[in-house]
Amino acid sequence: MNKIFLNLGKQPLANSFLSSNSKKKQSKEFFYNLKVAFNTKNFLVSVANPVNPKFQYTDKYAHRASESITMKNAFAKTANKLSKKFSPKIVMEIGSNDGVFIKNFDRKKVIAIEPCKNLAKLTKNKYRTYPNFWTKSLAEKIFKKSKKADIIFSANTISHIPDLKQTFEAIELSLSFNGVLVIEDPSLMSVIGNNSYDQFYDEHVYVFSAIAISNVIKKANLRLFDAEKIETHGGSMRYYICKNNAKYRTTNKLKKILKEEKEKKLHHFKTYKDFSKKVKKSKIDLVKIFKRLKKENKKVISYGATYKSSTVFNYCNIGTNYIEYVTDTTINKQGKFTPGKHIPIISPDKGINKSVDYAFLGAWNFKKEILKKEKSFIKQGGRFITHVPSAKIISS
Ligand code: TMP
Fold this sequence. Notes:
The protein has 396 residues and is an alpha/beta fold. The chain contains 14 helices and 17 strands. The chain has two domains: 2-37 and 296-394, Rossmann fold; 41-269, Vaccinia Virus protein VP39 (Rossmann fold), CATH 3.40.50.150. Helix 5 packs parallel to helix 6. It is globular, with a radius of gyration of 21 Å. The mean pLDDT is 96. It binds thymidine-5'-phosphate. The site of thymidine-5'-phosphate has 18 residues, from helix 13.
């Protein structure tokens, strides 16, 4: 049974940046009520009313994984690690984005799946790329001709797909006998620990725990044999999954993680009720900071037009009343307006300068990278605001 524990209010699609803030454009904007639920049977945490993926993963998809040095380096390191550990002959990626992961492999080994046509175009000349959603019929089509995959990698994608049953069944029929599915997604333990409720938005249909993952893959004859905590996206987990009869033994690392998740009671509904109370407090505290800075006539901007910040702004009702503009390095976000709150987005070159007093860390998950990059902003007296793990101005 799905029990709702969090209501984040009326939200737009986090990826739907507006090309103009005209009344006509605004009137066409799609909104839905974002509620988050806990399944009392398999302990999955999910968006209660997911949006149809066809509206989300279109040929205008803005996110480019290569935009961040942190992510580029992380994917190169992971590719190297998986190559050494499993010596794969065939590597398939589900959600290959702009090719940031696959480009670390010999092109003959790679199969890429990417439903956003604008992104699939970026890799199709060099790599075997399917511009499709991941389904059983696609898996059957691919592996009728090809040898099965020794590694199936998927970062920040499986948690975006509402139909997990079909997803894992399609993976099971695509893996070689000792093939390994490696998935990375934001970790529920981190979300609860950091109070990072902004990990919930339309694309993040699920925020997984190891407990929930091990439950849901069982039906597809798969099993979880290893997991590790990773730093990306503000605290993620990497899961290693194989066919039921494959050679891998459950690792001590996984046993430890499962134990920790149980100690943190990620399988109890009360944990989520408590989390929901903390989220409400976070909203009150953050708005208080913005109100005070407005009263003091400070110039406040936001750093990174992230999907996560769309949840924060729409839930906390923060718009151009508090924030002058948002800066983002992604060229196709620049010149547009944030979903729901319509804050203009400009390039960091134009927007980060002496005149800015405070910048809200929309991209808080890249805090280390950003603080390093923005030393001169801080030196000039600029300060960052964050809401993770609690609403505050970061003292430098
Ligand atoms: P993500 O959290 O969904 O990966 O999005 C991060 C966004 O933040 C992306 O649009 C790029 C932007 N960004 C900057 O503008 N400056 C930066 O220094 C970093 C790291 C990200």
